[in-house]
Amino acid sequence: MVRFIHTSDWQLGMTRWFLEENEGEAQSRFDEDRLAAIDRIGALAVAEGAEFIVVAGDVFDSNTLPERVFQRAVDRISQLPVPVYLLPGNHDALDASSIYLRPAFNSLKKAGIHVVRDSEPIQVREGVEIVGVPVRGKYSAEDIVGQVVSQLEATEDIRIVLAHGQVEGFGQDAGATIDIDEIRSAQSRGALDYVALGDSHSTAQLDGAGRVWFSGAHETTAYDDKEHDSGNVLVVDVDKPRSTVSDGTSTVTVTPTPVGAWHFHAISKDVMSFSDVEDFFAELDALPGKTTTAVKYSLRGSVNLAEISEFEARMAVQASRFAALYRRQSGSDLTVVAEVHDIERLGLSGYPLKAAHELSARSQGHNDDGTSIAEEDRQAAADALRLLARLVGEKE
């Protein structure tokens, strides 16, 4: 039997534009927490008695990382307490400019850091081997995983295939997809026992037997309307009697285990009345770990001037609590409908009062004479009306 940890898609050096406001304060914390998650993986390996760690591609976000970012990442990886096997993926492909050609890797093997550079079997210890399929470019027109797997012969050893790429029906296909049927065929003839995949950032089992998995990213990288279950690693147990060669009857147990600290939430809500806005704020209040949480939201509906002023004041407070909080550019349309008494409450007179009425009409999609206006002009009028109400409120 062997126990190991399957992880992938660390993409160390990754940045997120929505974390870069306020001089990148949230981005800096995100960077450090992504490194700290590696420490947690190491601690988990010790606690679970894992013999080694496999990282199934995209260890680094690109082959052109600044030396400062690269060296900090390498220093953290070199401190892992068990051997680790790093597979080049599409973000850090094993090409002429590969990050794995940097001199730092020359001495890392002594620290138990192994770069999988070809598909020759790697003996981890007696009875356990890894067959890797390193990615050599951003795009592959052929199923390189299927090609390697189809050539594998039956073995008494526990054999783990380490690969990176998409299967049909998961995510956006960047080139040829991995043929799951080819993997099933290899498993049935006793040629492999577990396939550790990377590329999808969400944890997912890909076959009925539970032998082919995406580990998902070790730390959240995208919003939960796209990335459904990330921040995990997989603790994998494989038990295979030495007499089992041709019938593929090894036993595999996979336990997803959270190690991430960040969460990215997408919130979408229809606003029929201000009580729906109150529900939105209640949902924000209920989110834990706000300093390590980003939220993008879309609200669709209408509010009056008083309500939009209250909404924006409360949003300013909420924004200070989260790593990021912002309105989606698409699918979000919270329209300001200025009622007569709203404008009267502003206490305006003369030209400002006339301008407020004109903006009110245009914010509803038409001029004073009833002729329609373009959507961008309607939105500009609504924004101007909000600003006018806010300025009057600040003056008071």
TrEMBL record:
It comes from Corynebacterium lactis RW2-5. Residues 3-202 form the Calcineurin-like phosphoesterase domain. Keywords: Exonuclease, Hydrolase, Nuclease. Belongs to the SbcD family. One of its GO terms (molecular function) is exonuclease activity. It comes from the Bacteria. The keyword Hydrolase applies. The keyword Zinc-finger does not apply. InterPro entries: Calcineurin-like_PHP, DNA_Repair-Maintenance_Comp, Metallo-depent_PP-like, Mre11_N, UCP033093_metalloPase. This is Nuclease SbcCD subunit D.
